[in-house]
Structure formats: structure tokens, C-alpha cells
Amino acid sequence: MPILSSNSFEVISRSPEQTRRFGMRLGGMLEPGDVVGLSGDLGAGKTTLVQGVAAGWGSPDLASSPTFVLVNTYRRPEDGRLFHLDAYRISGPAEAIDLDLDILLEQGPLVVEWVERIQAALPKDGLWIKMNWIDEFHRDMLLRAGGKRYLTLLEILRKEIFRS
What we know:
The chain is α/β, with parallel strands linked by helices.
């Protein structure tokens, strides 16, 4: 019996650059309404991954952690917005609802760091990424898809990463 379910797969990143490149692949596939939730301890590489997501999505801006402003907005030259929420300082789902998440999702994709703190306020479907620090350079990323759209994204990523 496989350890991972059919709606998940695992990737080991061997450098911050590789984590960013993975994020770029993901970012290039995101559409308004998409939710990507990131969990993992401090230093697990969440913001590094988001830097790649923003670049792949088409933003010329360098992504940074929105810990104190809560939500960063990245724009791309032709049109659109990508929202980057850091839930570390949010007390829970009720406070997250006050951020008008539904309006953000109408306008663009939403990437959430520390997603476990507000998951109940987010749509049920999404791409959930658990990041783990292995050592100074290596990170483990366990991706899990919830919903048909995200199963499709997961399959495309799997084919691109593993060329199978």
C-alpha cells in the first residue's frame, strides 16, 4: 500500500533556488479564486516558495513576508493581482474572515502562509503544501490537493517535476 494518497505527492528541494523554481511552476498555473495554503515551522521555506510563485505568476516584485501588514499584493504588468497572506499574527478563522477573503479570491489567487491558523475560513478546496526543514539547504514539501481543480494542478506539477 502506498504511503501517500492519490491526491498527494512529495518533493525534496535541495536549495532555495530549487524551491523558488518549484514555486515558479506553480505560480504560472494559478488563476483567480485559487487557494494555496502553506504550513511549516519558521525557516521551512514558505516565503522562499512564495517568491517563486509570485515570479511564475508574472509579478516583477520580489515577494516578502507580510507578517506585520498581513496581506501583500503582487501585480503583474498586464493585469491581475496575487494575494499573499501571512496568518501567523491572526488569532483564528473569525479574524481572517474580517479580511474579506472572498473578495480577494474574486480578484486573484491567494497564497496563505501558516494556513493551519485560519483554514476554517478558507474554501474547502485548495492546494495544501506542508513544508519541512531538513537541513540548511534541503526542504521537504508534501503537496495535497482538495478538489477537482487542484487534482488537475497536482497532476500537471507531478508530470513537470518528475517528467512522467
